[in-house]
Write a structure and sequence with these properties.
By secondary structure, the protein is mostly helical. It contains eleven helices and no strands. Helix 5 runs antiparallel to helix 6. The protein is globular, with a radius of gyration of 18 Å. The termini are far apart.
Length: 210
């Protein structure tokens, strides 16, 4: 039972490194996202297809990931995660004008649905916050992205998008603070874009050597 194993592993690691887990965090670790193993499997396949698309921009991967998330929802309509990730996939679909089946209102609706099912879902907050940033609703974006960090303090994407939101809002100090936090957490290909984002902030405040 992979879902139960993930919870067990998280708690074992916390014990081994002697980290105190608050009751709130323990509840999040122990929460079972879905009782339907097939729906969970489809969600994971959707995530895999999404990241393949993200790296290669192959529209077939994006179409596949959307189908996987839709099928996961059809098997368990109370499973919050695929709603949020379907919203993220649709944002790319609309942005790149690939087989558009949805409109932009769907993105917020899906995130709202995910958060109505799980009010502590970090992915729901940062995906919605990222969308608010992209449409210029900076205060709403800051609220959502901050909430995502409250839910998951190691969420590198929430820090990155919060930093870029502050940058677009010309709050350069908070932009650097959050982008540097993201830098400490990021270990993957996103570092390239992250250093570009940090560099843009330094240029904007005249710190050309940095």
């Amino acid at each position: 039972d992979i879902i139960a194993v993930q919870s067990e592993v998280a708690q074992t690691i916390a014990r081994e490194i002697e980290v105190a887990i608050s009751p709130e965090v323990r509840n999040r670790i122990e929460k079972i996202p879905t009782q339907n193993q097939q729906a969970y499997d489809l969600y994971l396949k959707g995530r895999d297809a999404f990241f393949r698309f993200y790296m290669n921009r192959n529209s077939a991967d994006l179409e596949n990931c959307i189908q996987q998330f839709e099928q996961a929802i059809s098997l368990d309509s109370t499973f919050a995660l695929p709603y949020a990730w379907l919203g993220r996939a649709i944002e790319y679909q609309i942005g790149q004008k690939i087989f558009i089946d949805y409109d932009e209102n769907t993105i917020i609706s899906l995130c709202n649905k995910a958060l109505s099912l799980d009010p502590n879902l970090a992915d729901g907050y940062w995906i919605r916050g990222r969308y608010y940033r992209n449409i210029g609703e900076f205060q709403k974006a800051i609220i959502d992205l901050t909430k995502a960090i409250d839910m998951n303090p190691n969420n590198v994407l929430a820090y990155r998008y919060l930093g870029s939101t502050y940058f677009f809002n010309r709050d350069y100090i908070n932009a650097v603070v959050n982008l540097k936090k993201a830098e400490k957490l990021e270990r993957g290909n996103e570092l390239t874009q992250l250093y570009s984002d940090i560099g843009q902030v330094y240029v904007s405040i005249g710190e050309f050597q940095k």
